[in-house]
Design goal:
Layout: H1 3-14, E1 22-31, E2 35-40, E3 49-51, H2 62-65, E4 71-80, E5 85-89, H3 90-94, H4 96-104, E6 110-119, E7 122-127, E8 140-143, E9 164-173, E10 178-182, H5 190-197, E11 203-212, E12 215-221, E13 224-229, E14 250-259, E15 264-268
Parallel strand pairs: 3-5, 8-10, 13-15
Antiparallel strand pairs: 1-2, 1-4, 2-3, 4-5, 6-7, 6-9, 7-8, 9-10, 11-12, 11-14, 12-13, 14-15
Length: 293
């Protein structure tokens, strides 16, 4: 079959495949980056199916989930006519109830449940609705930054195992089979209210909370910290922040950047810094979730 005929045969076959269909086939190749290549039933000429690493069954190693020569059944999640590829998910077929639950969730809806476990990378929530997770303590997961708007030391400062929580749904994590949640989204962002009443050039009274190699953080309102960079600690060059301030010191600082989008406050103790322009205005968005394994 020449190249043009092959391309036509592929497009004809792909025109019969729809997102949501279940396809059978045989794994013909495995690669670390692309996952499993699958020769689909109905098109034996070459593998058109692809199961990406994030679409393997949850809680199983790649070698357990797919090996060359194994027959699989997977759900079609995308049909790429340009690449001549059918993207598949075996996670969908091996955990159909959980897959269906995750697919029907809508960003912004509120999900309730019970804190099931607290780890260094986040908090698992056993949701009131939906199935359990085949591996993790709960289908719901809150990353550390999504626990609260305010500075804190450990996740246990915010929640406890067994505590009831209501969270905003952010997105489905198909890598881990989780509903990513935000607890902080259920409360107003104090930085936005702060930015309503503070502008660059304004003097603010505050307390030094901590020192870092590149400067000092100063709390200027309840839960609002700003950074005083080394260059802004004194009129003359400073090598270490502790040469100028200590944690607990009361200071008067001038706001030089109030950035709503990045939730960033830059301060100066020199009294000579020029106020800088805020980043271009735009809708505030909650940062996307990070993966865990």
């Amino acid at each position: 079959m020449d190249e043009a005929s092959d391309a036509q045969a592929v497009r004809s076959f792909l025109s019969t495949v729809q997102v949501g269909d279940r396809c059978g086939g045989v794994v013909t190749a495995l690669t670390p980056s692309r996952g499993a290549a699958v020769t689909l039933d109905g098109f034996p000429a070459r593998p058109l199916g692809s199961v990406g690493p994030s679409e393997m069954p949850w809680g199983r190693s790649r070698s357990e989930a797919a090996e060359i020569g194994r027959r699989i059944t997977a759900e079609v999640i995308a049909v790429d006519l340009d690449e001549g590829l059918v993207r598949l998910s075996t996670a969908a077929t091996e955990n159909p109830e959980l897959w269906t639950f995750l697919k029907r969730l809508v960003r912004g809806e509120v999900l309730s449940g019970t804190v099931a476990a607290i780890e260094s990378f986040g908090v698992f929530v056993a949701l009131d609705e939906g199935p359990g997770h085949p591996v993790f303590p709960g289908v719901g997961f809150i990353t550390i930054p999504e626990l609260t708007w305010r500075p804190f030391g450990a996740a246990t400062d915010i929640v406890r195992v067994g505590e009831r929580v209501s969270c905003e749904f952010l997105q489905s994590d198909t890598w881990n089979g989780e509903a990513r949640l935000s607890l902080r989204a259920m409360r107003p962002d104090p930085f936005q209210a702060f930015a309503d009443r503070v502008s660059p050039g304004q003097a603010l009274h505050g307390t030094v909370t901590r020192l870092v190699p590149f400067g000092a953080f100063v709390e200027v309102a309840d839960g609002i910290e700003g950074l005083v960079h080394l260059d802004e600690l004194a009129p003359t060059p400073v090598r270490r922040p502790e040469d100028v301030v200590r944690a607990g010191d009361e200071v008067t600082a001038v706001a030089i950047v109030v950035d709503r989008v990045r939730r960033r406050l830059a301060l100066s103790l020199t009294g000579t810094a020029e106020p800088q322009q805020e980043a271009p205005a735009g809708p505030y968005r909650v940062p996307g979730p990070a993966k865990h394994s």
